[in-house]
Design a protein that fits this description.
about 140 residues
Length: about 140
């Protein structure tokens, strides 16, 4: 399963949250793909998403790219891959984000959608979506 840690940020400031994998021993994953969806007021650059400690342990790196916005929602598609080692439980990505100086205060939802993993035998493993709250102060 994938989860994201909640975060708090002041208007015009930046912070981080983490994408965390809980690995299943029955189907260990060697690569992952997901889409990060967030609304107006939050700023996330594709280059601001870097590998977490679990990814680095497995020799993986994360690469993200912006997709066209869908209404007020922004989307980044991310791929975590490299080598054949399985990905252990732990942080797989660190997401640096900022709140716009004029971002409305309150909770914003960041969603992780369309998650898929791949095993060493190239079996596709769908992953449930998840959400976290980013509180703008």
């Amino acid at each position: 399963t994938l989860e994201m840690t909640p975060a708090t940020v002041d208007q015009g400031s930046s912070n981080i949250f983490r994408v965390v994998l809980t690995a299943r021993t029955a189907k260990p994953l060697t690569a992952l793909q997901w889409e990060l969806v967030y609304g107006e007021g939050l700023l996330i650059e594709a280059t601001g998403i870097v590998s977490g400690t679990a990814s680095e342990t497995a020799g993986k790196s994360v690469t993200c790219a912006a997709r066209p916005p869908e209404g007020a929602n922004h989307r980044l598609i991310c791929i975590l891959a490299g080598g054949i080692k399985t990905i252990p439980t732990g942080p797989i990505a660190i997401v640096r984000f900022a709140a716009a100086i004029n971002a409305p205060k309150g909770d914003k939802t960041v969603s992780l959608e369309k998650g898929r993993g791949v095993t060493a035998s190239l079996e596709a493993v769908p992953l449930e979506g998840t959400k976290t709250a980013v509180t703008v102060r």
